[in-house]
Amino acid sequence: MMSGRERRRVVPDYMAAARVTVPEHINVERTTLVYIAPDAATNGLDPPASHLLALLQDGPLSVYECAAHLGLPYCVVRLLVAGLVGGGTLLTRDPPVVDMPDIEILELVLSGLRAL
Amino acid sequence: MASAHSDSRISADHIPVKLVIAGPFGVGKTTIVDALSEIRPLNTEEVLTQAGTLVDDLTGVNEKTTTTTAIDFGRLTLPGVVLYLFGAPGQTRFQVLWNELVRGALGVLVLADTRRIDDSFAVLDLVESAGIRYAVAVNHFPDSPDYPPDVLRKALDLDLRTPLVVCDARDPASARAALIALVEHIRELVLS
């Protein structure tokens, strides 16, 4: 797959999120997992949004992976995702943000790494 | 689009966990992300502000007030969790980006090169000012001099409790051992 830098774009990157309305309460970050809502209407979306949905057809990906595969800057994809979450097309799983990491998560990481 | 997913499928039940790999230019961040990641490492553009323009040569593009950098990014799917690895540039001019990257991260693995130990100070300053848990992994290059651990620890001015491991960033098992040392250290801090 070609990355954004290899392909000459006719449309500037920021246009991918130009028509997006982002609800203020939705916060999406690099490692937020994104997946398609089970009952989402997936037709009638503009090209950047349909490319994103095609990418998510096989399962969840982080916002950062979506940006890399779409060849768009992270800041643009972040808005695109937030807009689609606001419209009910996408669902997210947020990374835990706490000062002290959860001990259960740490144990999962440790046992997972040791089993590799 | 199969390339986006690899063999390890992530489900919506996986908890995303972020780990940052930091170090000076050329220390092996890309190499270690490559060794650990189950997907071909990715990168995407990050926009930087004016701070970088003094350093990044923008001669001839006078109107340009922003510059971009690429961050190495890898993934490791484990039962129940999906680890995201970010190779973060260690220069202080990336401070804003750095703060964003470490927010919510489990911890930071600082890569050091004994041939250029001074280069690690800026990174250690960033890590310590962010107050994030970290471990130091010395990436052993073929021509690296062998220093005893206490000499390295002193040179880096490390706290006795901060893990210091020697690894070969090219070797997945060695890279994993360094990550395990970091996560064990974090667990001890959480339990204490």
Provide structural commentary.
The complex is a heterodimer of chains A (116) and B (192). Chain A has 116 residues and is mostly helical. In chain A, 37% of the residues lie in helices and 9% in strands. Chain A has four helices and three strands. Chain A has helices spanning 47-55, 63-70, 74-86, 103-115; strands at residues 33-36, 61-62, 90-93. Chain A has a three-stranded antiparallel sheet. The two termini of chain A are 29 Å apart. Chain B has 192 residues and is α/β, with parallel strands linked by helices. In chain B, strands 4-5-1-6-7-8 form a six-stranded mixed sheet, with helices on both faces. A two-stranded antiparallel ribbon of chain B has the order 2-3. Chain B is globular and about 45 Å long. At the A-B interface, strand 2, helix 2 and helix 4 of A face strand 1, strand 2, strand 4, strand 5 and helix 5 of B. Chain B: Keywords: GTP-binding, Hydrolase, Nucleotide-binding.
**Which chains have the largest interface?**
A-B, 46 and 46 residues
Q: What fraction of the residues of chain A are assigned to beta strands by DSSP?
A: 5-15%
What is the CA-atom radius of gyration of chain B, in angstroms?
17 Å
Number of strands of chain A: 3
**Structural class based on helices, strands and sheet pairing of chain B:** alpha/beta
- The share of residues in helices of chain A is 25-40%
What's the arrangement of strands in the largest beta sheet of chain A?
Answer: 2-1-3
Enumerate the strands of the largest sheet of chain B in spatial order, edge to edge or round the barrel.
4-5-1-6-7-8
Number of strands of chain B: 8
- Mean pLDDT across the residues of chain B is 84
Q: What radius of gyration of chain A results from the CA coordinates? A: 16 Å
Helix/strand-derived class of chain A? mainly alpha
Secondary-structure element string of chain B: EHEEEEHEHEHEH
* Multimerization state: heterodimer
Please give the count of helices of chain B: 5
Biggest sheet features of chain B: 6 strands, mixed
